[in-house]
Design brief:
The complex is a heterodimer of chains A (290) and B (341). By secondary structure, chain A is mainly α. Chain A is 71% helix and 0% strand. Classes of the chains: A mainly alpha (290), B mainly beta (341).
Chain lengths: 290, 341
């Protein structure tokens, strides 16, 4: 039998080409119904857990209110695009902390996918007679919207704290946050296809989240990193998280950054394709591992 | 140092012929307006202490459009009432230079005494009152006859110069004596000396008050003109910034006298002070070692000279936020507004 990363029983009808029986009705309607149901479930679950929102905001808030205050003087003053004048360190790290919210949320989605898989609810979800890719996309989109919600609350707190990008920038940043959320959510999906047990999730923290976050422009500009080590600065520039943070930063200040947009789109496509591959029971990574 | 420019009204719109039809009339009027009204390209002039130049900033594009050579170490800068002349303290050339702002040509020098640092143009538009830092005197020069009218002994290292709105009093502040010397402009006699905190740098009058900043003392002292008594003392505190770095230097008032903007030197911030309560309302981050300030025409933007970072930060007055920093020469010092229409 083909190893199934989703732990699906072969006698349960699956969606997608060659899947089980499909309910009658227009195809688009079925797709949207499934999308709406998954979004509703994820959102209801998130809103039902008030502590989750608080917990999600505490981490970046600690960085903003404590870490940034301590490092304000250490990092000195500079003018780097998209900023046109001198900025406080709090202003600098705000886009990085928005990226941090998306990063942790993406990884949390991956954790919950592994959990769902272990508990069997993933199996229930994927019994829907729709392509697996669509169902995974719906999960991805739900996680991204939750990230966006958290980011908007965080932006509001930042605004009250005195970090005030242009008002139009608060609108312009939404697509950038959505794209970042999709990219990191796709990465989370990919990781969840690789991780077999919840216990292995600690490795994600050590080998994915920390390197991605600290080896980026979230906390310090790349020119500052280059002063210490040009090799590290180049590594930071290659990090897709750096590109996503820069996309957020430039969008907030209404300045186009095509390379960051291109790299973020490319990374999103690669992670999504790899995640789809990973979740394919016939060819997935778990099969490769035996 | 800046002077509020005279208010100007737009020229009347030309009449448009009837035969042009309904749609053409507004179009023609707009076209006529565009052709008749020269583009508003006001300027901020900034002296660059280390480059011996002036950088001219276009207030519309916020870019440097001209760099003009001057004498050595230009610092204080001010325009004549009609903006046809600009006076520049060329400190290390020991002269005040008179320049044609349209061409950038130095027309002549004025006898200023040694090391002129700051000056103020009397409301009569004829007498420059100049602080001579090395000689401990204030020199009065007639800009038309180009002769020294008087020299008044003041405290050691005079620097800040202010003139009352009615022109009856000029104040010189002396950096080492830590005093504001009140001089009667009619008799050229000192009529009062008032103590201020360490190293007074700049002085400005309102109708009823004199404000003096003290760089080392870290304060601005407000005096009542009538009694010459101290009325208030403004102190500054920036979270995370050492108190020693908070050094008030230049400042400017909004025309309605509700708000003062005070440059705080190496703390790299400008303080926004409520002129009724004398409380600091907020601080604005600008470039390094912010020194002097100048408003644009409608006082919607404030330009700060940042000596160490070699740039000028533009502040949006309404939102009290820094908009942009513009690279100029090395060690920008003084700033003055010039309308070009």
């Amino acid at each position: 039998m083909t190893p199934d990363p989703l732990h699906l029983s072969p006698n349960i009808p699956q969606g997608g080409p060659g899947g089980g029986a499909r309910p009658p009705g227009p195809a688009a309607g079925r797709y949207l119904t499934a999308l709406g149901a998954i979004l509703h479930r994820e959102l209801a679950r998130f809103l039902g857990q008030k502590s989750r929102l608080v917990a999600a905001l505490v981490r970046p808030l600690v960085w903003l209110l404590v870490f940034a205050a301590g490092f304000r003087a250490a990092l000195g003053l500079s003018i780097t695009p998209p900023y046109q004048t001198y900025i406080t360190y709090e202003t600098y790290i705000l886009p990085g902390l928005l990226g941090m919210i998306c990063l942790f949320n993406g990884m949390q989605s991956s954790l919950s996918l592994v959990y769902d898989r272990e508990m069997g609810s993933m199996r229930l979800l994927l019994t829907a007679p729709l392509p697996r890719g669509w169902l995974l996309f719906a999960k991805l989109l739900a996680g991204t919207l939750i990230s966006l919600l958290q980011c908007l609350v965080f932006l509001g707190i930042g605004y009250a704290w005195g970090i005030r990008p242009p008002l139009a920038g608060l609108l312009a940043v939404i697509p950038a946050l959505l794209l970042t959320g999709l990219m990191l959510g796709a990465l989370g999906l990919l990781l969840s296809s690789l991780i077999r047990q919840l216990e292995n999730f600690a490795g994600v923290m050590n080998f994915v989240i920390f390197p991605m976050f600290f080896l980026s422009s979230a906390l310090y500009p790349l020119w500052k990193m280059a002063e210490a080590s040009p090799a590290l600065a180049r590594a930071c520039a290659l990090n897709p998280f750096t590109q996503a943070v820069e996309l957020i930063r430039f969008s907030l200040y209404l300045t186009p950054n095509w390379p960051a947009l291109g790299w973020t789109c490319l990374a999103t496509a690669i992670f999504a394709a790899a995640a789809l591959y990973g979740y394919d029971p016939a060819r997935g990574f778990t099969r490769a591992k035996g | 140092m800046t002077r509020t420019p005279p208010r100007r009204t737009a020229p009347p719109l030309p009449r448009v012929g009837r035969g042009w039809g309904r749609g053409a009339a507004p179009l023609a009027a707009t076209l006529a307006l565009v052709l008749a009204t020269p583009a508003r390209t006001d300027e901020i002039w900034v002296t660059n202490e280390k480059d011996d130049t002036i950088s001219v900033i276009d207030t519309a594009t916020l870019e440097v459009t001209r760099t003009i050579p001057t004498g050595e170490r230009p610092r204080g800068i001010t325009f004549s009432k009609d903006f046809s002349r600009v006076y520049i303290c060329a400190s290390d050339s020991d002269t005040v230079q008179v320049m044609d702002p349209a061409t950038g040509e130095i027309l002549h020098d004025l006898p200023s005494g040694e090391d002129p640092e700051q000056f103020v143009l009397h409301p009569d538009d004829r007498h420059l009152w100049i602080a001579n830092e090395d000689d401990a005197v204030t020199t009065v020069v007639d800009v038309e006859s180009r002769k020294v009218v008087a020299q008044i002994n003041v405290g050691i290292e005079p620097e800040g110069m202010g003139v009352s709105r009615d022109g009856s009093i000029v104040v010189t502040t002396s950096e080492t004596t830590n005093m504001a010397h009140w001089i009667d402009t009619a008799t050229h006699q000192i009529i009062a000396n008032t103590l201020v905190d360490s190293r007074p740098r700049h002085a400005e009058f309102t109708e009823t008050e004199l404000w003096v900043s003290s760089e080392i003392g870290g304060t601005v002292t407000v005096f009542d003109i009538a009694t010459k008594a101290e009325k208030a003392k403004i102190r500054f505190a920036l979270p995370g910034v050492n108190q020693d770095l908070i050094q008030p230097v230049g400042f400017e008032f909004t025309p309605d006298l509700t708000t003062a903007f005070v440059a705080l030197g190496p703390s790299n911030h400008v303080a926004v002070v409520n002129m009724q309560t004398y409380e600091v309302e907020t601080y604005i981050l600008v470039g390094r070692r912010v020194w002097h300030l100048a408003f644009n025409r409608d006082h919607s933007q404030l330009f700060t000279t940042n000596g160490v970072s070699g740039d000028v930060t533009v502040i949006d007055v309404a939102s009290r936020t820094a908009l942009k920093s513009i690279k100029v020469g090395r060690f920008p010092w003084g700033a003055a507004f010039r309308p070009t229409e």
